[in-house]
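Page 42, continued from yesterday. The earlier attempt failed because a stray header line got pasted into the input along with the sequence. Redoing it now with the clean sequence only.
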Amino acid sequence: MTTDKALDLLAGHHGILDSFIDLSGQERRTNPDTKKALLRANGFELTNDAMIHETLAAFEAEKADRRFPGEVVVQVGAPLALDLGHDTSWRLDLETGTAVAVEGRGQMGLPLSAGVHVLTVQSGARCEQITLIATPTAAPSVGALTGRDRLWGVNGALYGLRSARNLGLGDYQDLARAAKAAAAQGAGYFGVNPIHALGWSDTETISPYSPSHRGFLNSLHIAVDHIPGLESSGRAQSLLASRQVECAAARRADLIDYAGYRIQMAPLLEDLFDVFRAEASTKARQSFASYCQDRRRALSDFTLFEALSEKHGPDWRKWPSDLRSATHPGVPTARTDLAHRMQFHAWLQWLCAAQVSDAQVSAKQAGMPLGLYLDLAVGPRRGGAETWCEGDSIAQGVSIGAPSDQLNPAGQNWDLAAYAPGKQARGRYGAFRQVLRETMRHAGILRIDHILGMNRSFWIPDDGSPGAYIRQPFHSLLAIIAIEANRARTAVIGEDLGLVPQGFREAINARGLYSYSVLQYEKDGAGAFRAPDAMRPQSLACFGTHDTPTLNGFRAGRDIDWWQNLGWIDEDEARMARSERLGEVAALGALGGCPAQGEADTDLATRVHTTLAKSPVAMVSVQLDDLDGQVEAQNLPGTINEHPNWRRRSTVPLEQFDTWPELMEIGQIMQNSERGQRPADLKEKTDEA
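This time it went through. Structure tokens are written below.
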């Protein structure tokens, strides 16, 4: 067998696709250098031709030697139809820690409860383990969770919320207040950008989609005036008062100064921690202790990373060699030496969790049937806490990205870490489950960013080889999502934009996940916008996202202006794009049966939202930016400093949300389309009855 043939077989065995069809319809072949790079990312040493042949032979021998599959997905309550043979004995270790042992049985017919279990089968000297993923049929539906099949909600940037009490960045108390105001107008949920941990020592990262660890929360959003146990502390109040002059200037600015905010926030939180240790109520201390006990090793690893990052920097790849993973030899000593700083970082996470939980409780008490809508980023930063804590599951030497698509014709390299399929399976998806569990803990809805990556992930090698797709354990991951979603009672949305494989949407919908319909891209084969009644019922629909133009920006062609100013398109291309945009704007206005020509921006916004409200989709999201009349998008993909990404603050302060005319108008539009009623209206009907 030639080396090229052996490489092709080995790559195929590990899910590396030979080719893919790009945005223009052209086939892109995966070259040998890329295949080698992606195999190395999965943990294989392939430094010469002989090693390719040896690795292939070892894999095929191991596969031939197995009598049973390594992994089986089964429905909860259904018996496992797996013939184990009459010459075997087996033991089933349930996720709960309970063990079931049976000897001499040919077929295992025991119904399984939800979870990831381990079946050990013994036959003579042969012993094999099978991972059993017992999953509910589907994730919970909106109807099952709320008793209502059609809802609407508001989505906005948490960091951009403006209030008279925050320190210059939207915080978790602002989140609670914004959700309550939206609930008063009949909104069923309030959604925000990812609130994952960005890293205490990372002073440069501001994108919520480039987190350090997705299983923990962003301490920059802590509401320092709502710390449990310090409600009556004079020392705490004095500390807060001392920051008011600097914070007042920060609150007035239109763009967020993250560096200045961190300079104010970090020492304040450290001082408040000292006050907490000295003065906190018994109830608050017990709550903190319980939080730490519940999360144990995951919290211990994360807080150790945070403490180490204060000494060695935010990127563990630059740390001393004996500290470059949670399992390296220098770690036990570090745990002892840094115990106090670990406790501080655990306290920050407890504050985050307590305040997000309070926001969810507040939203539901205000009448929101689902409450918070949280967002799961596609992956963590490569040098951040998640890759340090979960190194055994991470693909090395590659970054997640995307080939050219409608979001970015040049393709994208996100510089985010990928989970390796084989490594994930060997770890029984523990790292992924921990991330899901923590993110769903306080969420009525979870949106999974770029869920296409759970079917096939586009990896870009560090060695300069072209990117290519690698298959992921799609059905196993969907089963895991269904398990965690049912436990948390959380509805799940999969952001399925981009190059969507055939049958993908049908597969996620069958598992109870909702698709994500962005009106800007909802066009038929002829390029015309889809009529409202042609939108997919099992989806959330919105006009745009953080990565796309706002309504006003779309109408003004602001995105086209940026492309031309940055040199991505020339003058002729810009002229053509603006001409096409005029037609798109007119078509948007006509969707509701009325022409848009000559109408004001607010009239176009009303027509667009009325169109979405009347559609059969389960959920409609209205962007806070569109209510605010913003022109600039939150983010311009492909830029870092050229565009004010992730820094723009809302112009309407939270104190005005309760009487904000645009929010009230949207509530009426949605109510007219039977997408929800204001809590006050429901109360009046109850009183009348």
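Notes: The chain is about 40% helix and 15% strand.
Reminder to self: strip header lines before submitting.
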